[in-house]
Design goal:
By secondary structure, the protein is of the alpha/beta class. The protein has three domains: 124 residues, HUPs (Rossmann fold, 3-Layer(aba) Sandwich); 98 residues, Serine Threonine Protein Phosphatase 5, Tetratricopeptide repeat (Alpha Horseshoe), CATH 1.25.40.80; 215 residues, DNA Cyclobutane Dipyrimidine Photolyase, subunit A, domain 3 (Orthogonal Bundle), CATH 1.10.579. Helix content is 50%, strand content 7%. Helix 5 links the parallel strand 4 and strand 5. The longest helix is centred in the middle third of the chain and has 25 residues. The C terminus is likely disordered.
């Protein structure tokens, strides 16, 4: 091995220098070259959107600056990962490959197998490290939470002060959407990428915006400001989960200290930070499911539900329902407003995401896979392990979770009673009186004309009738759950993926 051999740090969904173990270890071992690859199979995957690329590019620009300030370099290449690495190894002597391990979709899994094969053929060691609480080759969930907490409590990795990088290796510029065959992003209100924005978002949440988090997280009105809004930065690795966890623990301790000396902090902080901390654990809990069983990206968690929706989802009737759902014209204002909001901004709070998935699965009786891919493309914070696990949970195909069917009308009265959120995204309902906003199709004709919203013309009638659609869905699911295979699968799924807490099997309409 040449003394001038270079360590390649492969950046993927870890676009930062802080708390970055591969970078720190590689820099301590010799010269380092940072590498990011624009991979066509990822960029043109059905779950990728041009808004993702905009966020990535913003993050890359900041990462390039951060490495440069330490004497390092980030080079950008385009192509299949193993082929790019092979060409790079022909340009410079490569000592080792360093990266974070991923729990991604099947595309990245197969990509990593090809990279591992390449490294083996070349005699190049590939060092992988975890940046989350997911455990590879986990035998069972016993003790998982303690192991998660241990990882999150370990000292953060200090970034290297000085990086030595070869200056002669060529690099592409940051590639915009047009250069990669993508349409320009239409999400003009999406969050910007980069570690600086991630850190600012964390600090404003922990010190100002998050005080009412527990109460505010459910409404699309208040959640926009009072949820953490850290999910895109965690998904693309602009900040590490450990950094967020430790900052949350530190802030809780600070508030407790203030309380002990009589400074009387706002009591809402304690419940809000506790709820937020629980969601940080859930983050990895759901990712662990995909790590343990990669097929759930494509197949029902419980095989007892195979065939439940597949036949209907292939019909023209289902295609019409799916089009109405994704275009925000179902005739249910909260559903339509949420869909239009996420398509414009790339973000939506958890309860409203759950409602969109639930509506597609129960009211429209659509198989979860196609709606999940559509929203994956529009969520700026798309994280495969969380996304597919959650979508199946909200669609009733896990066999172990509560059947949660949301009433869109009730969500209006509970979460947006004055219609501020709905009117923002559905201007055709701007003059509809508050009392009719949850179900505008029930307005008498004279009120429809007076409000400038004639149902069937200015705004669609409901695509399905709520009560009968819910009753039919519940009946079908109940029949499946009574079958011996469903009970057997439930035990298997609980043993493999359960959180080790007693499952809540109550059925409810929220």
């Amino acid at each position: 091995m040449s003394r001038n051999a270079v360590n390649i740090v492969w950046f993927k969904r870890d676009l930062r220098v802080e708390d970055h173990e591969p970078l720190a270890r590689a820099a301590a071992d010799g010269p380092v070259l940072g590498l990011f690859i624009y991979e066509p199979e990822l960029i043109h995957a059905p779950e990728f959107d041009s808004s993702h690329l905009v966020f990535i590019n913003q993050s890359l620009a900041e990462l390039e600056t951060a490495l440069g300030a330490r004497g390092g370099r980030l080079i950008l290449r385009h192509g299949e990962a193993a082929e790019v690495l092979d060409r790079l190894a022909c340009e410079i002597p490569v000592k080792a490959l360093w990266s974070h391990a991923e729990t991604g979709g099947m595309v990245t899994y197969r990509r990593d197998l090809r990279v591992a094969s390449w490294a083996s053929r070349r005699g190049i060691r590939w060092h992988e490290f975890r940046q989350d609480g997911v455990i590879r080759r986990l035998k069972n969930r016993d003790g998982w939470a303690a192991r998660w907490r241990h990882r999150m409590s370990a000292p953060s990795i200090v970034p290297p002060e000085r990086i030595i990088s070869p200056a002669f290796v060529c690099s592409l510029p940051i590639l915009p959407c047009e250069r990669l065959g993508l349409e320009r992003s239409k999400k003009t209100d999406a969050q910007p990428g980069g570690s600086t924005h991630a850190q600012e978002t964390l600090q404003t949440f922990l010190h100002r915006r998050g005080v009412n988090y527990r109460a505010a997280m459910s409404s699309p009105l208040t959640a926009w400001e009072e949820c953490s809004r850290l999910s895109p930065y965690l998904a693309w690795g602009c900040i590490s989960l450990r950094t967020v966890y430790q900052a949350t623990v530190s802030r809780s301790a600070e508030l407790r200290s203030d309380e002990r000396v009589g400074n009387a902090p706002d009591k809402r902080w304690f419940g809000s930070l506790s709820s937020f901390g629980a969601r940080l654990r859930w983050h990895c809990h759901f990712m662990q499911k995909l790590e343990d069983e990669p097929r759930i990206e494509f197949e029902n968690v419980s095989r007892a539900f195979d065939g439940l929706r597949e036949k209907f989802s292939r019909t023209e009737h289902a295609a019409e329902r799916f089009s109405a759902w994704r275009e925000g014209r179902t005739g249910y204002p909260m559903v339509d407003a949420c869909m239009r909001a996420v398509c414009a901004t790339g973000w939506l709070n958890f309860r409203m995401r759950a409602m969109l998935a639930s509506f597609a699965a129960y009211h429209l009786w659509l198989h979860w896979r196609e709606p999940a891919i559509y929203l994956a493309r529009h969520f700026l914070d798309f994280e495969p392990g969380i996304h597919f696990s959650q979508f199946q949970m909200q669609s009733g195909t896990t066999g172990i979770n509560t059947i949660r069917i949301y009433s869109p009308a009730k969500q209006v009265s509970d979460q947006d009673p004055c219609g501020l959120f709905i009117r923002r995204w559905l201007p055709e309902l701007a003059n509809v009186p508050d009392s009719w906003l949850a179900e505008p199709h029930r307005m008498p004709p004279e009120i429809q004309k007076r409000s400038g919203c004639v149902i069937g013309k200015d705004y669609p009638a409901p695509i399905v009738e709520h009560t009968s659609a819910v009753a039919a869905a519940r009946h079908r699911l109940t029949l499946v759950r009574r079958e011996p295979l469903a009970k057997e699968e439930s035990r298997r799924v609980l043993n493999k993926h359960g959180s080790r807490k007693r499952p809540d099997r109550r059925r409810r309409i929220g």
